[in-house]
Design brief:
- There is one protein chain.
- The chain is mainly alpha-helical.
- It has 16 helices and no strands.
- Helix 2 runs parallel beside helix 6, helix 9 packs antiparallel against helix 16 and helix 15 runs antiparallel to helix 16.
Length: about 425
């Protein structure tokens, strides 16, 4: 008697499981939930900080300057943060950066509660946060490949981006409600407390289940070595150029959204919170699709994401009413997470493990450090020409870069394709 055929699982169930596959790894699961809690607090603070600056001065240019100050250290110190991530134990480095960031958030809360805050003081504290993030971000990004096997790395990187946007939904919504109900101080205080989740997750990770990368020996010229490595690797250089331009002009939503909410749509904190939340909802949905889909792999997908992102930003710039704005913003969020996670995944997979910290430091410089120029520039555009133009100057370059880069990135994909029968080792660099 033959055995009955095994029941087949529905494709939808398999797709959902594939989307969350990296969460089956204990160390990554701890990382995911710890940082998800922390990023909720970070987005509450981001919202509160934008509203604080507008309350203190009402100037879009000041908001751009504060945002730029937050990212100035990326431009000055970024490669050194990456080198520190390559040289030192990443978890120990994160203990220092996370605890210090909590202290800065607490200081914001105290100064706001005492009504002792000013624009110059906000700029100084934003610089302090930027310095901490220079060392925190490459350590955090390059820690992910040490938590999961290589075949789950792309999924883990994308889920990390999803968690940021899920946290943005909660952080923006809760932050907007808290500001309206009890004021700005609560947002800063809760952000300081949220860093405890990250510190606890780092303590609970098991060393025996890590995939540690070899640390390069200390020697002179390692920062220049990292720059040369990226410069001669097209799979790293092309995404980095795209990231620099889009990070400067398009990824300025902490500046553009509050200005559009206040000036173009005549709303307040609740309007900004709703806009940021709807944008994040689209990012979460798009991120889950990318995490479970194999169609979005490869450098060419980054160019396609740039085209779609640019079109979505332009649609948001042209939206005539709040209702239409809220329709457009989920697509902006989808484009944002697609571009962010695809660029991050491509650069993680294309880099040597011993270079990954320095490569991701350059990723952080391109994505965030360019805000030093872009934040004040976009704020000035909004001040002089209207808040909608602050979105237009981001959407157009995204669209053009995607169109221009698509042929070159497809050539990168063809060059990276392994020959038939070739097998990749678990944690070596890709054929890029």
């Amino acid at each position: 008697m033959t055995a009955p055929p095994a029941p087949r699982r529905a494709p939808g169930v398999l797709g959902v499981r594939q989307s969350f596959s990296s969460l089956s790894v204990r160390n990554y699961r701890l990382y995911f939930w710890g940082y998800s809690v922390s990023v909720v607090g970070t987005w509450m603070q981001t919202l509160a900080l934008a509203l604080l600056v507008l309350r203190l001065s009402g100037s879009g240019a000041d908001l751009g300057i504060v945002t730029g100050a937050r990212y100035l250290p990326f431009l000055l110190l970024g490669p050194f943060g990456g080198l520190a991530a390559d040289r030192y134990d990443k978890r120990r480095l994160l203990y220092v950066t996370q605890a210090s960031s909590a202290a800065v958030g607490l200081l914001f809360a105290v100064l706001t509660a005492l009504d002792a805050v000013s624009i110059p003081l906000v700029v100084v504290l934003s610089l302090a946060l930027g310095i901490l993030t220079v060392f925190d971000n490459p350590a955090r990004q390059s820690l992910i490949p040490e938590l999961v096997p290589r075949e789950r790395m792309a999924n883990a990187v994308t889920l990390n981006s999803v968690s940021v946007n899920m946290a943005r939904v909660l952080g923006s919504a809760v932050g907007g409600a808290l500001v309206a109900a009890v004021g700005l101080t609560a947002c800063f205080a809760l952000n300081a407390a949220s860093f405890g989740a990250v510190l606890l997750s780092l303590v609970l990770m098991r060393d025996c289940e890590m995939y540690p990368a070899d640390r390069p020996p200390r020697r002179k010229g390692q920062v220049r070595e990292g720059l040369r490595y990226v410069g001669r690797t097209p799979a790293l250089l092309l995404p980095l150029v795209m990231l620099t331009v889009t990070g400067m002009l398009a990824y300025e939503f902490p500046v553009t959204l509050p200005l559009v909410a206040q000036r173009a749509l005549h709303g307040g904190p609740g309007t900004y919170g709703a806009m940021a939340s709807l944008m994040a909802v689209g990012a979460v949905g798009g991120g889950l699709y990318i995490a479970g889909s194999r169609r979005t792999r490869g450098a060419g997908a980054l160019a396609v994401a740039g085209i779609g992102w640019g079109l979505a930003i332009l649609a948001a710039a042209l939206a005539p009413t709040l209702a239409w704005e809220l329709v457009a913003l989920p697509f902006v969020g989808l484009g944002t997470i697609a571009f962010n996670s695809l660029s991050k995944t491509a650069m993680q997979l294309a880099s040597l493990p011993s270079m990954r910290g320095r490569v991701m430091a350059l990723w952080s410089m391109a994505w965030g450090g360019s805000t030093v120029v872009g934040g004040p520039l976009v704020g000035w555009v909004a001040q002089e020409f209207g808040s909608r133009w602050s979105l237009v100057v981001g959407g157009v370059p995204c669209l053009l870069l995607g169109v221009l880069a698509l042929p070159a990135l497809r050539r990168v994909d063809r060059a990276a394709s392994p020959s038939p029968g070739a097998a990749a080792s678990p944690h070596t660099s890709s054929p890029y």
